[in-house]
Amino acid sequence: xxxxxxQKIIGAGRLLSDGALYALICDIIVMQxxxxxxxxxxxLKQLVNKCQETNIKRAWLFAAPxxxxxxxxxxxxxxxxxxxxxxxxxxxxxx
Length: 95
Hints:
Blueprint: E1 2-5, E2 8-17, E3 22-30, H1 39-53, E4 58-61, H2 68-72, E5 77-78, E6 86-88
Parallel strand pairs: 3-4
Antiparallel strand pairs: 1-2, 2-3, 4-6, 5-6
């Protein structure tokens, strides 16, 4: 997913999936001047919607230090036992 303003990229997110069970949200990035305007949230929602459309059962991501709370707002949870990354098991995405 790519977000544009005045024909310039201001944000992007990538999703890798096997198309059947699992997906990895590789990264979501928004240019600093455009942060805190809902762009990252919109990109995340669109990536999760892609997962839902193909009945993906589980999505993972690795949050940058200090960014876990952003993803927790949307239903992602920190993996147990200090495992790296976060996961979204049930696709009851928090809007």
